[in-house]
Write a structure and sequence with these properties.
25% helix, alpha/beta, 12 strands, seven-stranded mixed sheet, five-stranded antiparallel sheet
Amino acid sequence: MSEVVWHDLECGRYRQDLELWLELAARLVPAGHALLDVGAGTGRVSIPLAQTGHHVVALDRDQVLLSELERRSAGLPVETVCADARDFALPGREFPLIVVPMQTVQLLGGGDAHAAFFRCAQAHLAVGGCVAVAIAASEDFEEFELLDGEMAPLPDIAEIDGRAYFSQPTAVRRLEDTFLLERRREIVEADGARISSDDRIALDIITVEDLQQAAQRAGLRSSDWRRVEATDEHIGSEVVIFGV
C-alpha cells in the first residue's frame, strides 16, 4: 500500500482549502442531493464533506486510492467511482456542485483535456449548478534544483508499521507548457535497509483565462473566483467557479 502512503504524505495533509469546499457545499447543495468530488484520492476533501452530512460521489482513476477511501469512509455517505476525469459518464446523475480541488485539472494533459473534462462536467451539472476548479498559476511556482551541498527543503516524513517514509522535493522545473515537480522517495526499514526512488509529476501551466476558455467550449461561464493563500508547505491557488 505504499501508493496510498505516498499520496497521503505528499497531498493528504493539505488543509488550507477545506473551508472553501465546505462553504460552497453548505451554500449550493440542497438537502438530499449529492455532490461530485473529482480527483478524490483517499478522501482528503470527500471525507470532511461527508462528515458534515453531504452525500459525496468521489471520482478518481486510481482504484487503489479509492479502495482506501472506501475503508476510511465506512458509515459515511460516500460512494466511489473509478473513472478518468476527461471521460466519465454517470447515467442519470446530476450534481448541484462539482469540485475539482488541488490542481487536479492540471494533471489532465493540456487544453483539449481540460475542455474534455468540462464537457463531462457540464453533462452532469444540475440546473443552476456550479463547477469549482482549483489551479496554481505559473507565478505561484518557484523553480529550483537541489544541488549537492545546498540546503534542502524539509522532506515530508511519516512512520507507519515500523517503516519510515521520506519524500524530499528535489526540483521544480518549467518544461514547455508544464511544470515538473520532482521528488526523491525513500523507505527506511526497521533494520536500516533503504529503498529509494525518484518521482516526477507534470502539471499543466494554465491561467484563469485559459480555464475560462476551456469551460466556454463546453457551454460554461465563470461566475466567481476565490483565492486560497499559500502555506509554508504548499503553493496558493485560484478557485474559479463556473455555471451554465
